[in-house]
Amino acid sequence: MDKHQIGVNAGIVWNVLKDNARWEYHHLKEATGLSDRDLNAAIGWLARENKVDFESANQQDCLFLTVNVYIG
Prior knowledge:
- This protein is α+β, with helices and mostly antiparallel strands and about 70 residues long.
- Helix content is about 50%, strand content about 20%.
- It has helices at about 5-15, 25-30, 35-50, and strands spanning about 25, 50-55, 60-65.
- The protein has a 3-stranded antiparallel beta sheet with strand order 1-3-2.
- α1 (about 5-15) crosses α3.
């Protein structure tokens, strides 16, 4: 795995998440077709860029896109 592939995988995750729904990890894994390792690296990439957020609901962690709008 290299940085380029992690970035490509982050794009795959981003495209799935852009429906503005809350995704549980295992559903996101199925939708992307990525391995745990690749999915976790992609989520880390997006989290580092402040593009995703996490919440716990019904004892399940969910992942969703963060909309960052800067005006000024």
